[in-house]
Design a protein that fits this description.
- The chain is an alpha/beta fold.
- The chain is globular, with a radius of gyration of 23 Å.
- It is 37% helix and 21% strand.
- It binds nicotinamide-adenine-dinucleotide.
- Nicotinamide-adenine-dinucleotide binds next to helix 7 and helix 8.
């Protein structure tokens, strides 16, 4: 039994600074998405509090041996941390599920084990990336030495609270940095437990800190702090732009930005297994109720398979069971807030006004008290400038566009602003590779959709979907800076 009683989950209204919880007055009401009940309050760190946290992290970076100790020992601490996280699933999973959109069956089976694996993955880079010797003349020895930045600010969204934290924190720590992490104000609590377990694993106090608050006050103060050397951010494109501006004005300092998407799923008539493809398409728009940056939200299908594909997708939608995140039988997550659910509904309404036909869904479930649950939705008859095609909805809403030939399909797949990911479903390898080359996106999945459990494949956007990469070797290296050294070795 993995269902739990939300009233049995204790959360703490606190920051985590210098290895200790720092309780603080609640200033913001935090609600459970499943039933819209307030369950905790959140402090909002002002500029003075942010300054204290960053100074603390800076001191820990300078005075602890986290950056200078043998890298394998850094890796050992991180592996111990991963083991503790995995062993803590009975506490961590309900803590993650209670206030987020992540159903308990998924936090147990996927989120918590994946976070532990991610930490192990990045730990292994600690002693495997060093720098390089340059090709200089024989009287010189030139090299590049990799070094951590110092204190990195990491800012995360609410959709996968622990995973998003891990994507940022694990490579930064493995590279020897200190981190000040700001979770989303909507899902602020589970990362405190991560920080606590890091201390138990042996991470020096002050190397991983959590500061609570909203974006406008706390996030901005963090980005602008002079002792923050780099900002790594995941969230919306608009916020990413604001963060980049703040980093330019207060630095400039480097940024990694993982932003929004509006990813196409291109299905050709020769697709090998239509039913399997349909299940994959349905999952890619209903997983976490579509609140996923890489949701495959635009179906672009060749005319010959339109009807059978729609039919299979509708069957897959019908199997989903909306429910509270603490119910182990839930297979369709709640929407994060009533405001976000209304936003989804407003875009669907605008899409209908602009000519879309609702084949399935198109409204909130009315059976669950409190929480907001949106029906998996199919919108047919949308033009390329329909609002549901252009705007990131962040809900279980799939638009359907029809094409006749490859060129037309690829043209529809191209989005004017976003370029995060795309799916291509075809039995023709040549066609798949032509699509891979033509699609202006950061990731293409062929005959599948969504990330695998392999941490080695980087993720990141083209166009306005981002700058830089998370995951993979690239994510580790983006937490390092490189110092050039030239030594005269002439024999005088
Ligand atoms: P958001 O941009 O509203 O907030 C993200 C974080 O930024 C939060 O912690 C918030 O407090 C903070 N923030 C907001 N304004 C800020 C400011 N001015 N300065 C500093 N920090 C600020 O995003 P969200 O609604 O939490 O998340 C949904 C968005 O995240 C979607 O657009 C989704 O596509 C994107 N996302 C992208 C990826 C990816 O890998 N590309 C992954 C997950 C989510």
């Amino acid at each position: 039994m993995s269902s739990f009683d939300p009233l049995n989950v204790n959360v703490r209204c606190a920051h985590f600074i210098g290895g200790l919880y720092r309780d603080a007055a609640a200033m913001l009401d935090v609600q459970r998405p499943s039933d819209a009940q307030s369950y905790a309050g959140l402090p909002i760190a002002d500029a003075a509090c942010v300054d204290e946290v960053v100074e603390n992290a800076w001191r820990a970076f300078k005075t602890s041996d986290w950056a200078s100790r043998p890298p394998r020992e850094r890796a050992r601490v991180m592996r111990r941390w991963a083991d503790l996280i995995e062993a803590d699933v009975a506490t961590l999973a309900p803590l993650e599920s209670v206030g987020s959109t992540r159903p308990i069956s998924e936090t147990i089976a996927w989120d918590i084990p994946s976070v532990a694996e991610g930490i192990r993955f990045f730990a292994e880079f600690a002693d495997k990336v060093g720098g390089e010797v340059a090709a200089t003349a024989t009287d010189h020895l030139g090299m590049q030495i990799s070094e951590p930045y110092g204190v990195i600010a990491a800012i995360a969204p609410w959709n996968f609270p622990l995973s998003m934290a891990c994507w940022k924190i694990a490579p930064a720590l493995a590279a020897g940095n200190a981190v000040v992490f700001k979770p989303s104000e909507m899902t602020p609590f589970s990362c405190l437990r991560l920080a606590e377990l890091a201390i138990v694993a042996g991470l020096p106090a002050g190397i991983f800190n959590v500061v609570q608050g909203n974006g406008r006050v706390t996030g901005m103060a963090l980005c602008k702090h002079p002792k923050i050397s780099k900002v790594t951010f995941t969230g919306s494109t608009a916020t990413g732009a604001a963060i980049m501006t703040a980093c330019a004005e207060s630095g400039p300092k480097p940024v990694t930005l993982e932003l929004g998407g509006k990813s196409p799923q291109l299905v050709f008539a020769d697709v090998p297994d239509l039913a399997r493809t349909a299940r994959s398409i349905a999952k890619a728009i209903t997983g976490n109720a579509g609140q996923v940056c890489v949701s495959g939200s635009r179906l672009i299908v060749q005319r010959a398979v339109l009807e059978p594909l729609i039919d299979e997708i509708q069957k897959a939608f019908a199997l989903l069971k909306p429910g509270r995140t603490w119910d182990e039988n839930t297979t369709l997550a709640p929407i994060i807030s009533a405001a976000q659910a209304n936003r989804i509904d407003t875009i669907v309404t605008r899409s209908r006004t602009a000519g879309a036909e609702v084949l399935t869904g198109g409204k909130l479930f009315d059976t669950l008290q409190g929480g907001a649950f949106y029906e998996p939705t199919l919108l047919l008859g949308v033009d390329a400038d329909n609002p549901a095609v252009l705007e990131e909805i962040f809900g279980p809403v799939l638009t359907v566009q029809v094409f006749d030939d490859e060129e037309q399909g690829l043209a529809l797949a191209d989005h004017p602003t976003y370029g995060l990911a795309a799916g291509v479903h075809t039995a023709d390898l040549g066609r798949a590779m032509r699509a891979v080359r033509k699609l202006e996106v950061g990731t293409v999945w062929v005959n599948r959709y969504g990330r695998s459990a392999d941490w080695i494949i980087p993720t990141g956007g083209y166009k306005r979907s981002g700058i830089g990469k998370d995951l993979g070797r690239a994510a580790f290296e983006s937490n390092l800076r490189f110092k050039s050294v030239l030594i005269d070795i002439t024999d005088y």
